[in-house]
Design brief:
This protein has helices at 7-17, 21-31, 33-37, 39-43, 62-70, 72-83, and strands at residues 45-51, 54-59, 90-94. By secondary structure, the protein is an alpha+beta fold. Strand 1 (45-51) and strand 2 form a beta hairpin. It has a single domain (19-94), classed as GMP Synthetase, Chain A, domain 3. It is built from six helices and three strands; from the N terminus they run H-H-H-H-E-E-H-H-E. Helices cover 56% and strands 19% of the residues. The termini are far apart. The chain has a three-stranded mixed sheet.
Length: 95
């Protein structure tokens, strides 16, 4: 049938060629934040951003800052597992 490929394969090749896979995964995390961390954490998160392997989470209260500081390693593991890649190297909790 010639040199045809599926649309999904074509998109994956495009992302690989231009090294965009990680940016797509980061955007998926930010867009679907509640699905990644659950409603309690998401509803107490004011802002989430990603810089050079570090996921920054700005929370709404000192209590949540303390809770998430203790759970940073678990959050990192959970997110990396969901995207099936060691994308998050560090998690920082901000107020």
């Amino acid at each position: 049938m010639g040199n045809y490929m599926s649309l999904g394969d074509a998109i994956q090749r495009f992302l690989a060629k231009y090294e965009l896979q990680d940016k797509v995964l980061i955007q998926e995390i930010l867009t679907n934040w509640e699905q990644f961390v659950g409603k309690p954490i998401a509803s107490n998160t004011e802002k989430v951003w990603f810089e050079k392997g570090t996921l920054f989470i700005k929370v709404s209260s000192p209590t949540w800052r303390n809770e998430l500081n203790m759970a940073r390693f678990r959050l990192k593991q959970m997110i990396n597992q969901k995207v099936n890649k060691e994308l998050v190297e560090e998690v920082r909790i901000m107020m």
